[in-house]
Amino acid sequence: MNNSLEIFRYAVVENNLILLQGLGLLALTRLTKTTAEASRVSLAILGSMLTAGMALWALAALVPSGYALDWPFLLLIAGLSALLWQRIFAYQQNYLLSSAVVGMALIGGRDFIGGPQIVTFAFAAGLGVSLVLLVVAAIRERLDLCPVPQPFRGIPIVLLTTGLLALALLGFKF
Amino acid sequence: MTSFKQIWQGIFPANPVFRLMLGLVPAVGVTHLAWNGLFLGLTTTAVLVAALLILAVLSPVTGGRARVVTGLAALTVMTVIAQRVLVVSYPETVVGLGIYFPLIVVNGFVLLTISREQPLGTSLFTGLGYGLGFTLALTILGVVREFLGLGQVFGVPVVNWALQPFALAATVPGGMIVLALLMAAVNAVTKESGELNE
To answer: What is the pTM of this model?
Structure first.
């Protein structure tokens, strides 16, 4: 995977972190009540993914060879980046730390995306996540006007909607 | 509250997946096989309890500050140890869990338990209860998804229908749908609404 366009296709469509890997569900279920809220968290996720990607690229030279794609290194760098952006956006809960950003780094490691490509991958993955968060938020705003049965209200209907949304992308995967 | 009550609280009244709606990532990511759910649930419980013990030992040194960062480090160390130990006896399962094994460290309910300042006894029993509740939820979800998606339970074929299995249930999108339906079923039985947990 050398071509940026290929990385974009891989990260946004084939391996969309939320829809096809099931990551970042905490932000998806808690922070998509309005489009404004969703765009704020999208920005935070995009920022922390880019920071994590750049840090992973820059720091890879400092760790002994063979460990740069090992998960403890990836997890700690991505985790610290997420904590930093949580502080910048003043989130009281670990919305960024839980999964999407860390998951991006781990998938990068799993699929041997190293060097400068990890920055492109981080940006593309962040874009894929933001897109889903915004779409789900827009759907949720519409859902507020619908008579949703009592047991489905809140998180279950969001998960159901996201699952149906993900079905569309499944078509590109197989 | 007695210790038994604290554990019970995490298993049903405050089940991490069905009631607190935390830790949803492994719940949709790995439970296409029931065994994966059980395995990951028990590992998460063990890692959480061990990390809580490490935090309790370290808290006089760190002075209670930077609890999340210390917790993150303790969880990472325990997860590395768990992976090294388990990969010897269950290599296929650990490899099969892939990125979801390291994600134990940033699991929503694990971080919630770690970040709460509580006396050691209370935090241990709460952690144990949440862990067991999480294991139970993942196993139930795994049994349902494996049955629907592959027509088997814990690897044992249980149906010999002429009907093809419903393969969607074994994918991540199918996992989200099955999880949503189970959550709604729990809400319907307990007569509560999902909105309360946001």
So the answer is: 0.91
